[in-house]
Every structure is written in C-alpha cells, then in structure tokens.
Amino acid sequence: MSTWLGLMIVTAAAAVGLLGCAQQPGATAAVVADKTYTVTPGTMPVKAGIVTGTVTEMKVTERIEQGSGRVISPAKLTGKVVLKNSSVDQTLRLVGGTIRYVDAQGQSIKLEATQTQSALKFSAYSNERLDPGQEATQSLDVDFPTAALKARTLKEIRLDLVYLPSPYREETVRFNVAIGGQ
C-alpha cells in the first residue's frame, strides 16, 4: 500500500509540474505596416560632367507599428540609379557618391543620430569601369531624415558623384610580315 501511495504522490507531482510549465497564451504580436511616401517626380535625370543617367523608382518607406504609431524602422529612400559615360574619349571609374537632402532655404537636412550618412558605394568586384557609352546600374537604399517627411520641408535631393576620368584611346599597330618556307 505504501508503494501505491508513493506512486500516486509522484504521479500527482509530475502532473502538477507539467500543468504548471504548460505554455501560457502569449501577448499578440504587434502589427507592423510599411508607410510609403511617393517622391515626385519619380524619375530624375542625372548630369555630372561626363556622367549622365537617371534616378528612377524613388520612394520613401518607413515601418510603423499600427495602433501606437511607433516607428519600428526609420525612413529609407530607395530607387535605382543608372549612370552612363557620355564621353567619346575618356573612360571613368565610379568611386562613390552621397545623397544630400536640401530644404526650401537651401540648407542640408540633417539625419538623426541613429542614421548613417547616405552613401552610394559602387561594386568593387566589377571595378565599375565605364568605357565611353557604357552604363552601370546601382540600387539606392539610404537613410532618409524624418524631418524631411513633413510637407513642404524637402525641396531637393542632391546626388554628389565621385569618379575618376582617364583618357581613353584605341590605337592600331601595323607590322609587315612574311611567311617563309614556300
């Protein structure tokens, strides 16, 4: 009988332990949604020295927690940059670029302390060398200042490009030859 009683106590203790450790219903996950701001115009021409092209598909997106309105992920400017070497006699190497946001008074709009400088880095694996007439495409995904989201604050976006031009030449070398043995 004492064995039976001991077995009952152990079984009861195990049942209480399992029920106590059962997973409790958790709090419902917050719903997060993307808030998208259109950039007008959505396509902009680029002309910087011998570099021409376009910036397209521009939009600003931030992630917001629905209900509370809390910003989960700060605003980002995304798009596509297509750059072309319009020179006929120079090759160039794209080094990089920066994006600056300018207000109606011509002053730069500063990024928040948690955001990083809006820089474009061109792929090193292909050296981004552009011979005359060639194009390079770069995706744009940079931080966007929260202050610029207010209506009538942002006047323009500036793309500062850094590239190295060098003379491009094609030459032909001719030499006379003779085939012997006939």
Can you walk me through this structure?
- The chain is mainly β and 182 residues long.
- It has a domain at 43-56 and 76-167: Immunoglobulin-like, CATH 2.60.40.
- It contains one helix and nine strands, in the order αβββββββββ.
- The chain has one helix at residues 2-20; strands spanning 32-38, 44-48, 51-65, 71-85, 90-103, 119-121, 129-130, 135-143, 154-167.
- Strands 1, 2, 3, 4 and 8 form a five-stranded antiparallel β-sheet that branches.
- The chain is elongated, with a radius of gyration of 31 Å.
- The model has no long low-confidence stretch (mean pLDDT 82).
Concise account of the structure shown:
By secondary structure, the protein is mainly beta. 10% of the residues lie in helices and 46% in strands.
SSE string:
HEEEEEEEEE
**Tally of separate helices:** 1
Number of strands: 9
CATH class value of the domain at 43-56 and 76-167: Mainly Beta
Rg over CA atoms = 31 Å
Q: Which stretches are poorly predicted, pLDDT < 50 over at least 5 residues? A: none
Q: End-to-end distance, in Å? A: 119 Å
CATH topology type of the domain at 43-56 and 76-167: Immunoglobulin-like
Shape: elongated
- Report the structural category: mainly beta
Estimate percent helicity. Answer: 10-25%
Share in β-strands: over 45%
Query: What is the annotated CATH architecture of the domain at 43-56 and 76-167?
Result: Sandwich
Main beta sheet strand tally, sense and closure: 5 strands, antiparallel
